[in-house]
Model the fold of this input.
Amino acid sequence: MLSRSSVTTIEKFILTQEDEHPDATGELSNLLYDIALAAKIIAGATRRAGLMDILGSASATNVQGEEQQKLDIFANDTMKRCLEHTGRICAMASEEDELLIPVPDDVKPGKYAVLFDPLDGSSNIDVNSAVGTIFSVYRRVSKSGKGDIDDLLQPGFRQVAAGYAMYGSSTMLVYTTGNGVHGFTLDPSIGEFLLSHPRMTTPRTGKYYSVNESNFGRWDRGVQTAVRGFHGDLPERIKAKNARYIGSLVADFHRNLINGGVFLYPSDTKNPNGKLRLLYECSPMAFIAEQAGGAATDGTRRILDIMPDDLHQRVPLVIGSADDVAFVTETLEKVAADPDYARTWPVA
Ligand code: F6P
Done:
């Protein structure tokens, strides 16, 4: 429980951080407030979803071929409306839109490019499980005018900020600007995000592994071997873990960030590049994971080093506690070097 004197609003916290950077113009801080405002609006709509008869699917299908739900459309519009007229951004991209979203003609373009997944895990809305908004911010690389595709197609290590809002039993906003990870909880009675989780760090080894095991038969042997390690089948290398999987990246990631754990969405025969999007999901989460002391890889490459070539590119993802991510990479290497590695499982 916070004492009265320790209450810090997100505004106050961002300002304090800005003070540590004398060259800061305040634009990034304002951009973060814009996103916090969008998160509050989306949180409100998510909470009222069952009441307002906005549950269920809209007729549209998004660019990924997934069924779009009404709240997805609302969240997408909200993010755009909270960002496009501010003069702080030069271009946007959303998981729900096929192409770059330009700033309106009557707005002076700003110095940041923002990418977002407005409502991640939206298949969970109908069953009242946690969903979230993920965002990623880059400094523009184009010189002036409206931003172009190069402002959006940047490797994750160039992010200047990334974060997510989670609409769960409470609404949280977790973000990093490269100086640690900080979490805020929305106090609905005053409409403010209050600092509840300063300097979040993730345990080096986690309790949980999170993966959609219905894909087991479609994974390659390296991934199968790593997951069997989590089952407890390689006791000389790793202790058995507990399984936890919601199927909502923000919720699965958030739990593992706090308790320690590893989340995997590897490639499989149905999704040869994995399912998750580099720019809207993997890169922002990787920035947060690393800032919290964790790690993120596609199996061979650090996620933050991957140079995107397409706005909607997918990559395999292994993310979370550093030792557990390392266990997966090492296991993939061992199986690649020796296809018979761990083929005979120890008898319990
Ligand atoms: O990308 C959307 C998403 O819902 C993520 O939030 C989640 O991690 C993943 O898909 C779940 O996919 P699956 O249903 O295949 O396990």
In short: The first strand starts at residue 57 and ends at 61. The pocket of 6-O-phosphono-beta-D-fructofuranose is lined by residues 120-121, 123, 212, 247-249, 275-276 (CB under 6 Å). The chain is about 30% helix and 25% strand. The mean pLDDT is 92.
